[in-house]
């Protein structure tokens, strides 16, 4: 298993959204109601928000066999 760290690309946005959703739901289930988690995820990991972050700062992703993890 080889993990690579690289700069985020615009084509990574959907995969980043998926990882964020899965990790938030797994981490906060039973602690933060799902509808609040989803509202936060929509705000913090939306297409537009991730594009703005990428434009203003360096964002890295971890990949394993070309998949965002």
SSE layout:
Blueprint: E1 3-7, H1 13-28, H2 34-44, H3 47-56, E2 60-64, E3 67-68
Antiparallel strand pairs: 1-2, 2-3
Helix pairs in contact: 1-2
Could you tell me the mean pLDDT? 96
Q: What is the element string, with H for helices and E for strands?
A: EHHHEE
> Biggest sheet, in brief?
3 strands, antiparallel
Distance between the termini: 12 Å
**How many H/I helices?**
3
The structure class reads alpha+beta
The neighbouring-strand order within the major sheet is 1-2-3
- How many DSSP E strands? 3
Strand content: 15-25%
Q: Tell the overall outline.
A: flat
Helix content: 40-55%
Write down the Rg: 13 Å
- Low-confidence spans: pLDDT under 50, at least 5 residues? none
